[in-house]
# Entry
Amino acid sequence: MTEEETEILRKYLTGKKYDKVFEMEKLKGLVHRISKEEFDEKNKKEK
# Structure
């Protein structure tokens, strides 16, 4: 990502009045869900 793209993205996000804490929690939740699904898949294969 170029510096210009980063700046545009930042302006877009701040323009949307994003709550950064909320966004981080959403991302953490997404990562947690994905890793849990992968964990469940591995367990199914071993049975």
